[in-house]
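User: Hi! I have a protein structure encoded as tokens and I'd like to know what sequence might fold into it. I'm fairly new to this, so please keep things simple.
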């Protein structure tokens, strides 16, 4: 296998990705894993096509790019768009105003201002683009080699760039241009030297990050030469940020070039540049202010256009632009699990959106013609999950069921992708009862994490949008809560534990500071009282020397200790519901057992309910009272834990149970479920599991399958329920008729 053979691999759909992969998935070969690792840094052609489509659909950057192209075209074809030579003097026409013969008038020597502006653009744009080109040519190899190889070369380069960056850029360019003397070539040299250090630092930083990635080690492991790794593995990692940076700094180069030309260090008179036109205009400002305004406006517009194009390139490459939505959406709210961030809906926008008879639309609200909605701008800025208007049409609340803490009804959610909106959750129904632990299980990509984060509306928009259903917390619909109400339940009545505690804890603050803050946001307590409570919580979750550990930072804790600290923070305000999103995934087996025992004990002590998201069926069997099984964005079975593990009713649940390792079983190949979970954009018709089900018939593909209640505490989504015997695999039942589609 050669390095070039491993350049391509399938990219999974991000719409329903979850961080953990179920143990029962089919094993991949070492060569397949290497292929994926080696293909990771390469930007596929589809990536660049998608970026180009995003850029073209963004009207402001496209307008700026059009302006720059027009400007370059005018400069290139200056003789065709001007009626006078730029240096031709007509003294009797000095300071004449705008006319059909002189579109922008004349200067103090009777020279045509329009001609000088267009011919001046030739030199100014030539210098700007040349500096950008030569700076990249010099900075990329220096930064790549410095970041990838490090050592003495890196130290020398960094000390040199530090010294150059310590001098203000304009002063550095002025000093070099002053030494070399005026002229276009010398000005290009001076500006290139000014720009190179910053670009070197950027490229070096990206190379340092890429050097530590697994795909670099994988490439080394198959004997790839270092030069190939640098220019075929690391360089693609650098291209996107470098392209963004260069497109933005071109505007800076244009301004500095004009400044130096104004000081007489550019192309000498009489040849026009925008800088020396500024100089001439300044001298004649008392006679005719137009002479300084014309080049100043041209420089300002060109600089603004470069900056807007740079922003557009960034948004297109990284998908950070504001998404376009239909006007029938309304604004949601967002925040951290402790309610640290919130937004206030614009009531005027909501009123007009909710009024079906409204005849007027503002540019900020409509999206059908590609313009940006005002609500989307606010949602994007605050990371909010927007709620479709139809999803908020249900009653505000219902009589509270004392036995139920959380009830999710027909929750539907879409993600925005490059191919449009795709459905990620389809009419999800869950119920968490008071004091119980409900396990939410399924393979990676089934929608477990998306469901859990939807409860507090933590999914950002874009890409997420809730399109239907209810999330009733003690009878109150979370989807219809105001920003203030939603903030009040986050971290107080509902808390959440995330998969990666290191990413969930702020590395800049101590553990004690973060637990204290979580309390004081929601309760009127003194700092001393909150610190005492924080100490008690750390001791409660099993962290020794709790008083001393309050002043430690997250990086000073082990993985298991960080997870315990995160649990202590979640319990700071005695929540009624704890959402644990795969809290043991990143921990070793011993620590996993300790965390599971801790959650079980705290459930009893705090009398709280727990929604436990996991793919580990062993954990579910030991910890949970009831189980909900998810597949491809749907709940396919709910039952008590005893019923699920002794008499599963859905073929998917049965297949999951067969796939788990069992102590005492014969040594052999671990059974697995053929195929993979379908992506959100390619859901099969009918039953979503039929493509992998050993019991599927033609009827399973005919229509969507509803979930059927088969007992007081059990429901299943299968049209063949009652017909098939899941206690035996089809291969062991020759009498069973199986028609795979």
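Assistant: Happy to help. Inverse folding works backwards from shape to sequence: for each of the 741 positions I chose a residue that suits the local structure. Here it is:
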């Amino acid at each position: 296998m050669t390095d070039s053979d491993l350049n391509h691999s399938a990219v999974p759909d991000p719409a329903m990705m979850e961080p953990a992969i179920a143990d029962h998935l089919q094993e991949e070969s070492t060569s397949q894993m290497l292929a994926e690792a080696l293909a990771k840094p390469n930007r596929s052609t589809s990536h660049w096509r998608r970026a180009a489509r995003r850029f073209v659909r963004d009207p402001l950057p496209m307008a700026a790019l059009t302006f720059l192209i027009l400007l370059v075209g005018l400069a290139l074809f200056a003789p065709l768009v001007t009626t006078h030579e730029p240096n031709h003097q007509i003294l009797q026409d000095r300071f004449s105003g705008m006319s059909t013969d002189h579109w922008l008038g004349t200067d103090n020597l009777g020279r045509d201002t329009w001609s000088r502006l267009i011919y001046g653009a030739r030199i100014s744009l030539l210098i700007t683009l040349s500096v950008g080109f030569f700076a990249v040519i010099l900075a990329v190899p220096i930064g790549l080699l410095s970041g990838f190889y490090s050592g003495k070369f890196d130290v020398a380069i960094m000390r040199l760039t530090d010294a150059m960056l310590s001098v203000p850029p304009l002063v550095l360019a002025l000093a070099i241009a002053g030494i070399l003397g005026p002229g276009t070539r010398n000005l290009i040299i001076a500006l290139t030297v000014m720009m190179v250090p910053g670009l070197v630092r950027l490229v070096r930083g990206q190379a340092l990050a890429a050097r530590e990635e697994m795909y670099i080690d994988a490439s080394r492991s198959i004997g790839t030469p270092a030069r190939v790794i640098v220019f075929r593995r690391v360089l693609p990692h650098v291209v996107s940020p470098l392209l963004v940076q260069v497109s933005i700094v071109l505007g800076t180069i244009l301004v500095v070039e004009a400044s130096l030309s104004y000081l007489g260090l550019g192309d000498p008179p009489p040849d026009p540049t925008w800088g020396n036109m500024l100089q001439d205009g300044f001298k004649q400002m008392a006679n005719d202010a137009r002479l300084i305004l014309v080049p100043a406006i041209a420089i300002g517009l060109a600089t603004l256009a470069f900056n807007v194009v740079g922003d557009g390139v960034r948004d297109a490459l990284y998908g950070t632009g504001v998404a376009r939505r239909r006007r029938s959406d309304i604004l949601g709210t967002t925040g951290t699990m402790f309610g640290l961030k919130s937004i206030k809906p614009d009531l005027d926008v909501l009123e007009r959106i909710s009024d079906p008879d409204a005849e007027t639309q503002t540019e900020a609200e409509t999206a059908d013609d590609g313009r940006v909605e005002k609500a989307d701008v606010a949602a994007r800025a605050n990371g909010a999950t927007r709620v479709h208007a139809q999803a908020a049409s249900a009653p505000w609340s219902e009589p509270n069921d004392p036995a139920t803490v959380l009830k999710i009804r027909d929750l539907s959610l879409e993600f925005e992708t490059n191919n449009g909106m795709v459905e990620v959750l389809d009419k999800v129904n869950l119920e968490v009862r008071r004091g119980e632990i409900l396990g939410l299980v399924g393979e990676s990509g089934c929608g477990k994490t998306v469901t859990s984060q939807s409860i507090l509306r933590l999914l950002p928009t874009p890409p997420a949008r809730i399109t239907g259903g209810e999330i009733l917390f003690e009878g109150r619909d979370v989807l219809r809560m105001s920003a203030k109400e939603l903030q009040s339940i986050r971290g107080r009545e509902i808390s959440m534990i995330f998969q990666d505690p290191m990413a969930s804890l702020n590395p800049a603050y101590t553990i004690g500071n973060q637990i204290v803050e979580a309390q004081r946001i929601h309760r009127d307590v003194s700092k001393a009282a909150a610190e005492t409570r924080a100490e008690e919580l750390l001791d409660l979750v099993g962290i020794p020397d709790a008083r001393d550990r309050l002043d430690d930072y997250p990086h000073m804790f082990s993985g298991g200790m960080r997870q315990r600290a995160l649990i202590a923070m979640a319990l700071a305000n005695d929540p009624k519901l704890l959402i644990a999103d795969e809290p043991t995934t990143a921990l070793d087996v011993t620590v996993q057992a300790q965390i599971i025992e801790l959650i079980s004990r705290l459930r009893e002590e705090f009398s709280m309910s727990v929604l436990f998201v996991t793919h580990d069926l062993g954990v579910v069997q030991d910890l949970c009272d009831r189980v909900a099984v998810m597949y491809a964005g749907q709940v396919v079975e709910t039952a008590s834990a005893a019923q699920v593990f002794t008499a599963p009713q859905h073929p998917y649940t049965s297949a999951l149970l067969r796939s788990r390792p069992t102590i005492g079983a014969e040594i052999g190949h671990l059974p697995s479920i053929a195929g993979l979970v379908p992506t959100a954009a390619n859901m099969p018709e009918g039953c979503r599991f039929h493509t992998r089900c050993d019991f599927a018939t033609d009827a399973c593909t005919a229509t969507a399958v509803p979930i059927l209640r088969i007992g007081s505490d059990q429901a299943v989504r299968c049209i063949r329920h009652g017909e098939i015997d899941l206690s035996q695999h089809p291969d062991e039942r020759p009498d069973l008729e199986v028609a795979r589609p």
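A useful reference point when you look it over: The radius of gyration is 32 Å. Feel free to ask if any position seems puzzling.
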